[in-house]
Write a structure and sequence with these properties.
four-stranded mixed sheet; Aspartate Aminotransferase, domain 2; 393 residues; alpha/beta; binds pyridoxal-5'-phosphate; 37% helix; Aspartate Aminotransferase, domain 1; 2 domains; seven-stranded mixed sheet
């Protein structure tokens, strides 16, 4: 008999009653150190008191009005994002995949309104992940996500990650945009090198096509800059955001330049819940905290510390681990044993990590993780690795 919850997830046999900072706590009091943060969502930790306070305050005032009316909190958050980024304008969604939907629509409408409706193709990259909506799965294009769901949304060209010659050859008159994650998350924590991101921007400029960045997982301070593309000193035309921006409350956004967004006039897009007062109250507080220069400096310092300890861990367990990669507090350990075994061995040590493609485990802790918690995390990973390969010890 089919379970009452549609069985689309393979869930771990863990269930948490409450969260506190970097910790998730089961009903029996077992405390798990959370290096997954809800897959890069709880960027400021669980039950962050400042987020709880703004959410509670807003909940006592007003939950939902729809976008039929002005939403001052939404306006405030849009202004904050515009002030802090390349963007001139923002549309709010509730998730990353909804942000993907709009990014694709926006790019196509841009060319349509310019009188070049043939420029519908979007170049995307193998190993990428853009969500589970029809546009999201078509954009990523992997067999695993698309099989059985055809006909797929047409107009995506999939290229291998990092093949410059293939990229140049793929740019024809029907290509309107390139879509890329600056750091692939689900794909196994694969950062695109700064020079490649710069080259991508230059290629888009030369060919007058739009650059769409998916910063759903790598954005909002995760890599030590507010957005990951800042490391390369480039800006996109359109950017997808979600996850960390709501700190655990469902919130996403599409940020765009005035030019790229020029086709999106009244009536061309909408969302019942997108940008609701609850989400935007939390989003404003997340922005307050993450845009503090001292906050990002701390993310970078802690990222250096964690990375250094992980390099030591990998060296100590050469039969279990291969290498460390990533950017900021978006780190991956490529494993030699099956990554899911490492994740499970972590559960035995009351440590949560997240598997990704390419046999990688992802470490995406709350950006607020403390030095002591970093120590504890590495100690627990060490115990998990020892349990998997006792001969290493
Ligand atoms: C890079 C990226 N894009 C899009 C998505 C989809 O986001 P959501 O699950 O909120 O729809 C994800 C989710 O993991 C992601 O990592």
């Amino acid at each position: 008999m089919i379970p009452s919850v549609l069985p689309t997830y393979s869930r771990a046999p863990l269930s948490f009653e409450k969260g506190e900072g970097s910790w998730l706590i089961e009903a029996d009091g077992r405390r798990f150190l959370d290096l997954g943060a809800g897959i890069a969502v709880n960027a400021l930790g669980h039950a962050n008191p400042e987020l709880v306070a703004v959410l509670t305050e807003q909940a006592n005032l007003l939950w939902h009005t729809s976008n039929l009316y002005q939403i001052p909190r939404q306006q405030e958050l849009a202004d904050r994002l515009v002030e802090a980024t390349f963007a001139d304008t923002v549309f709010f969604t509730n998730s990353g995949t909804e942000s993907c939907e709009l990014a694709v629509k926006m790019a196509r409408k841009y060319w349509y309104d310019l009188g070049q409706p043939e420029k519908t193709d979007i170049i995307a990259f193998t190993g990428s992940f853009h969500g589970r909506s029809s546009a999201g799965i078509a954009a990523a294009g992997s067999e695993k996500m698309t099989r059985g769901f055809g006909p797929l949304l047409p107009g995506f060209i999939h290229l291998p990650w990092g093949d410059e010659a293939a990229l140049k050859a793929a740019i024809t008159d029907t290509v309107g945009a390139i879509l890329v994650e600056p750091v692939q998350g689900e794909g196994g924590i694969v950062p695109m090198p700064d020079d490649q991101l710069k080259a991508l921007r230059a290629l888009c400029d030369e060919n007058e096509i739009l650059l769409i960045l998916d910063e759903v997982q790598c954005g909002m301070g995760r890599t030590g800059k507010l957005f990951a593309h800042e490391w390369a000193g480039i800006t996109p035309d359109i950017m997808m955001v979600a996850k960390g921006i709501g700190g655990g409350f469902p919130l996403g956004a599409v940020l765009a330049t005035e030019k790229a967004a020029s086709g999106m006039t009244a009536g061309t897009h909408g969302s019942t819940y997108g940008g609701n007062p609850l989400a935007c109250a939390v989003g404003c507080k997340v922005m307050d905290i993450v845009t503090e220069p001292a906050f990002l400096a701390e993310v970078n310092r802690k990222a250096g510390l964690l990375r250094q300890k992980l390099e030591g861990l990998v060296a100590a367990h050469p039969e279990v681990f291969d290498s460390v990669r990533g950017s900021g507090l978006m780190l991956g350990i490529k494993c030699k044993v099956p990554n899911v075994d490492v994740v499970k061995a972590g559960y035995d040590q009351e440590l949560l990590t997240v598997p990704a493609a390419d046999n990688v485990i992802r470490l995406l802790p709350p950006l607020t993780i403390s030095d002591d918690e970093i120590d504890a995390a590495v100690t627990r990973l060490d115990a998990a690795a020892t349990a998997l390969a006792p001969q290493d010890a």
